[in-house]
Amino acid sequence: MFERFTHAAREAVVGAQHEARELGQAPIGTQHVLLSLLADRDSALARALAADGVDHAFVRAEIVRRVPADAAPDNAAVADRDAEDREALKAIGIDLDKVRKAIEESFGPGALHLPRSTTPKRRGLFGRFYASGHIPFTPRNKKVLELSLREAIRLKHDHIAPEHIALGMIREGEGLAVQILTERGVDLVRLRETLTRSLSFQIPGA
Length: 206
Description:
By secondary structure, the protein is mainly α. It has a single domain (2-200), classed as Clp, N-terminal domain (Double Clp-N motif). The protein has 11 helices and no strands. It has helices spanning 7-23, 30-37, 44-50, 56-66, 75-91, 96-107, 125-130, 139-154, 162-172, 176-183, 188-200.
């Protein structure tokens, strides 16, 4: 099943972890996946949301405004969630270690490291924890990834692209990502139609 995810979809999943780390937040929520999906300004999702004034900068600002800074998680609890997270993602075809390896083989070591944020970094234990290491996904976010597979099956596609992940996010319907979009006035029905139409012109595996 891992092969079903296109290169761009794999980048989006791993990119969500880097977005969360840059914001000093955990676990990884639907809002971080949305942020990662919008990092590519030429993507179908970014183009579809541009008319509503929704872009990477807007979503990032909304996340900062809405999500309070949390205390650093207990290390043992993090390890337990990390193991559960990896197993859950593998069950739907995503192996984060393989994703990182595949992307770095294509683009070189360190290709997954996003530019460092210009916002001040937190210091102390919290800052050290987010400087490295895997951040777990929320159960809701795992559900979104599962629904992305269901969306691909519904559309009779043999691959999972970033659009399928966005469709899974809309279908789940209760995450912070969808809240940000609906409160901005985004028509989710129209967005679903636009993303579905975009997929019909897509080359599988691209």
